Amino acid sequence: MAALSETNVTASIDPTDIFAVKVYIITSSWYVNITPDILTRIFSLMDEIQLIILGTPKFKLHIFLETAIFKQDLFALQNLEWCIFKTIARKTAISLPIVLKQFNQVSCYIDEEITKMRSPPSDMNGIQMFINSLQDDNIIASLPKYEKR
């Protein structure tokens, strides 16, 4: 397992999951996809986890936390808590509405263009060809001036 210092933590919007905001913890050898809800649960247990790590273990139940690298990673993750949740909040409050608006604008443009066609695409291949033929400039030009931002 790579040390957290070699790790990239990013939040993004996942269009395959109803545009949910997700956090990805990525290293050169692995990645973890974590929802904000799970991170909230992890951070709510951080005090108890630290007591286990810093205390003398009474049971072998806590053996997974006995290596120094796991302890360092856990402390580094706790130090990143504020940054991670600030990024999630920013993605949720700012980026997500913009992405959804753009998605709606492109959907409306596609709907208008298909309505204009004499014979709309009838199969998946036709739909893929139609979508591949779309040009950003035409979509942007179709928007009212106040919506082009």
Write up this protein.
The chain has one domain (4-147). The protein is built from 5 helices and 3 strands. The longest helix is centred in the middle third of the chain and has 49 residues, at 68-116. The two termini are 43 Å apart. The chain has helices spanning 36-44, 46-54, 68-116, 124-133, 136-142, and strands at 8-14, 20-26, 31-34.
Q: Topology, pairings included?
A:
Layout: E1 8-14, E2 20-26, E3 31-34, H1 36-44, H2 46-54, H3 68-116, H4 124-133, H5 136-142
Antiparallel strand pairs: 1-2, 2-3
Salient structural properties:
3-stranded antiparallel β-sheet; 3 strands; about 150 residues; elongated; alpha+beta
